Amino acid sequence: MLAIIGTVPDAAVPITIGPAELVGQEVAVAGRSFAVNRGTPALLAAAIATSDVLGLPPPMAYLVGDIGRGDGSRRLYAHLAATLPSLDHEVLVFHYLQPDVDWHGRVLLAIGEMRRRPLLIADAGYMYVAKMSGQAADYDLFTPDVGELSFLADDQAPHPFYTRGFLLHMDEEVPEMIARAYQYGNAARHLLVKGKRDYVACPTGILAEIATPSVATMEPVGGTGDTLTGIVAALVASRLPIPRAAEAAAHINRLAGAMARPTPATQVGELIACIAPAAAQALPDLGLYPGPARPGSA
Amino acid sequence: MTLLARLKGALTGKKAASSDLSSPDRGFLVFENTSEVIAAENLLRQAGWKVRVMGPPAEIRRGCDLVIEFPLIERLEIARLLQSAQLPPLEVVPVSGPLLQPVDLFHTVDYGDYLMVRAANMKICIDKRSQVIVNISGGGCPDVPHLAARMVGQHLTSTPQPRDIGHTLCGYALQLAYEELRRQCSP
Fold first, then answer.
1. Which residue of A has its CA nearest to B134?
2. What is the pLDDT of residue B14?
3. C-alpha distances in angstroms, A216 versus A260, B109, B133, B159?
4. Minimum mean pLDDT range among A95-99, B97-101, B145-149, B175-179
5. Chain B residues in contact with A263 (beta carbon < 8 A)
6. In this structure, are strands B106-110 and B114-119 parallel, antiparallel, or unpaired?
7. Is B66 in the same domain as B129?
């Protein structure tokens, strides 16, 4: 089963765990509802929509309230460190958690004690702490945007805020930055880089480039990176090989963007509503077939 | 060596053998004199922060001969607390690279009716005619969704600012993008 771990911007929300449902413009987990404006709820919503097309069960959500003080994140880290060894998730997605190197190490230790090693996907703050810890290579997939790729390519910066200028100038040189991220051991086994052109990469080089449909007005829309991570997570949970899942996710996210016809003022909920039809259209075009999951069919 | 073995080493034996080493998610606060270091340490400890006083690395021997090590990610909230107590540090630097500077490059995209500015990993977009913030994107720290919820829909000049309601380095990057956008929109 797919498990998605992150935060919601309400400090009063305790650790909340359960299967996630999409109810209108909100994600419902264990009797609580969260708006899908951006962040982990947007990722969850995209994963739910994609899972539904694939005939998969909804993802399991592990959420906590945190508005940047880190207190909620650290409670969730502690919970995961204590409980993960006894759980059996096939795919774990880590998202908007406060970067904390010590707790990150304890969670990785707990993952190492799981009966079956899950596939590990990291985005947002958890990708930052994985790189900061020097343990990026223990992950199966990172989903950075170009700004975050600059950070991964910087062997010194502890956070994107300190990325050095010469790397920020390399916006148009994504393959070079990918190579540099791998050179310094700051990338996961696979990268899905989102930008004007999306890239799927591994340590040996670029595996795929996705440039169409091109919707320039998606970049300012908060949450479109979160939806891409949610889509690829669901596809990985359907047991597609990661490179194929990443390429398909990039197509689906772009197609959903084109269907939503966004302006820079569009909110991501409008795009999420288009993910299921986009997936239903894109998967057969890519030689993949929606419907009940068939283990090993990839 | 397996992941499990490496992590066990990192969290047990190796850590004990190198307990003076700082974690890469920490930063140094540099002050003018030792009195300020002591006052700031007391203030931060009373507020519940995990901090420690130590000697500075060679690169930042500009203030006194002591610095405070603190959780770097929460830089914005800690800086606000020190400022309110009139204890602003001379410098705030990452332990992993004391010479690293905050991002100072901005990318601007003009969408016709809308204008977007990016600083590091944070983007902010306004409607040029109304000067209302229409979207905030990027970032990875948990205050980003919180900041977006408070700022989207607000006028550029009257919105709450990240420096006042944010907590993290992502919030700080958004503050820089916000200030650059205001600069570009000023008459």
1. A265
2. 37
3. 13, 10, 18, 27
4. B97-101
5. 111, 113-114
6. antiparallel
7. no
